[in-house]
Design brief:
This protein has helices spanning about 10-20, 25-30, 35-40, 40-70, 80-105, 115-135, 145-175, 200-210, 220-225, 235-240, 250-260, 275-285, 300-310, 320-340, 355-365, and strands spanning about 190-195, 215, 265-270, 290-295, 345-350. It has a five-stranded parallel beta sheet, sandwiched between helices. It is elongated, with a radius of gyration of 27 Å. By secondary structure, it is α/β, with parallel strands linked by helices. The protein has two domains: about 10-175, Butyryl-CoA Dehydrogenase, subunit A, domain 3; about 190-365, Rossmann fold (3-Layer(aba) Sandwich), CATH 3.40.50.300. It binds adenosine-5'-diphosphate and uridine-5'-diphosphate (UDP). Uridine-5'-diphosphate binds near residues 218 and 316.
């Protein structure tokens, strides 16, 4: 669709960011018309710059290869040799820029650290620039004239946008290291675990109100994704209906976005991590050690009873799905609970009793 019309603060952001590139004017003119979509976000700006470089480089690559194809095969002039070589290295440059663009689109989604993904992009964009230089160098031995000037001039224009894109990736990489922790604020995070229906949400609401936390129920975030028709909605609904665990890439990405965009910095994360794999991906992408991990403990019959009485119209609150959720809890979540127990972060709470009684058991944890 059409990008939203730019506002002056958004174009200011692009102008300032372009100061760090080697060709600031080209940078600004090629990117400012998209400033509304960039929304002052360095990652989006770098991705956009790569997109612009990709389109210019593809165009150039087609141009050189067309000229190359229209030359007689017995044409052995230095010009034709240079054009053939250029056509080949430009094809490589386009591949490298395309790979970079795809990687930028998957930042934070692959299970690898963003840092690692960005270093790949830096490598590929540098290689693309080198290939473009190689093309120009090939014309060194060609005698000066209009055709040579035309070719070298066109490549130079592509090099400018490629170099700018690399510079914007570099500046983003400088700030993207551990994106959350490098911010001036360093949020406090507590995890709240326990089987289905044990009362995590109920107690989290009270803890959040009394002790000033932002309550993030990952189950609620996922249900919101379903009802907002996000691209992952169908797969999330299918996974939740079966009582299985949604892919870590999805949950961690959601959590990261919510934490990053929140004005507050004390979080109770309810119902996550549900597996050691969840925990690993969390550590790679968000990486903030939880201060406290609460474990609400209760027998399965009681959990089943509470789930079946919940009455919130949830697709997973039925006997069969809840049996599977209990099985998943035991097989995948208990190992996480053991992990935090070994790290001496775990507080096990007896979840049998009235809501008030249970809340009283929690007070000492938050008042010391
Ligand atoms: N201490 C308790 N005793 C009995 N029922 C409870 C208690 N705490 C919560 N419930 C009820 O059990 C159901 C599940 O609680 P909820 O907080 O949604 O659990 P979870 O977030 O762990 O899935 C809800 O209907 C809730 O009202
Ligand atoms: O980090 C999470 C949190 C929730 N879920 C899914 O959401 C469902 C409901 O989770 P929630 O914590 O809302 O409810 P509970 O199981 O505690 O009743 C789970 O069974 C999973 O299918 C998930 O996959 N990953």
């Amino acid at each position: 669709g059409h990008p939203p019309p730019p506002t002056s603060t958004e174009t200011d952001y692009i102008r300032t960011s372009c100061h760090t590139t080697r060709y600031p004017e080209t940078c600004f003119t090629s990117l400012s018309k998209y400033s509304g979509a960039v929304k002052n976000n360095p990652s989006r700006l770098a991705t956009l710059a790569i997109h612009v470089a990709l389109s210019k480089a593809s165009h150039m690559s087609n141009y050189v290869s067309t000229i190359s194809r229209h030359m007689d095969s017995d044409n052995t002039t230095e010009y034709s040799a240079a054009v053939r070589d250029c056509s080949s290295v430009f094809g490589d440059a386009v591949d490298e820029i395309r790979k970079s663009y795809k990687e930028m689109k998957r930042l934070g989604w692959t299970g690898e650290s963003v840092r690692f993904q960005l270093s790949n992009v830096q490598t590929w964009m540098s290689a693309a620039l080198t290939n473009q230089d190689t093309c120009v160098d090939g014309f060194d031995d060609v005698s000066d004239g209009d055709v040579k000037a035309e070719m070298v001039g066109r490549v130079a224009a592509v090099k400018e946008v490629t170099s700018n894109a690399l510079a914007l990736v570099n500046s983003y990489a400088d700030t993207a290291d551990a994106p959350i922790q490098s911010k001036a604020r360093s949020p406090t995070i507590n995890f709240v675990l326990g089987g289905p229906g044990v009362g995590k949400g109920t107690q989290c609401t009270r803890i959040a109100e009394t002790y000033g936390f932002t309550h993030l129920s990952v189950g609620d975030l996922l249900r919101k994704e379903i009802s907002s028709n996000s691209e992952y909605g169908d797969i999330i609904l299918d996974t939740i209906s079966k009582g299985k665990i949604v892919s870590s890439e999805v949950t961690v990405k959601l959590l990261k976005m919510v934490i990053e965009s929140s004005e507050t910095d004390r979080f109770l994360i309810d119902g996550f991590p549900r597996s050691e794999e969840n925990r690993m991906v969390y550590e790679q992408i968000i990486g903030i050690e939880p201060e406290v991990v609460l474990f609400f403990d209760c027998n399965e019959e009681e959990m089943m009873k509470r789930v079946l009485h919940r009455n919130q119209g949830r697709v997973d609150d039925n006997v069969d799905t809840t049996k599977e959720r209990l099985r998943v809890f035991e097989a995948y979540t208990l190992p996480v609970i053991r992990y935090y127990s070994q790290k001496q972060k775990l507080h096990k709470i007896n979840a049998i009793g009235t809501e008030d009684e249970i809340f009283e058991r929690l007070r000492p944890i938050f008042t010391t």
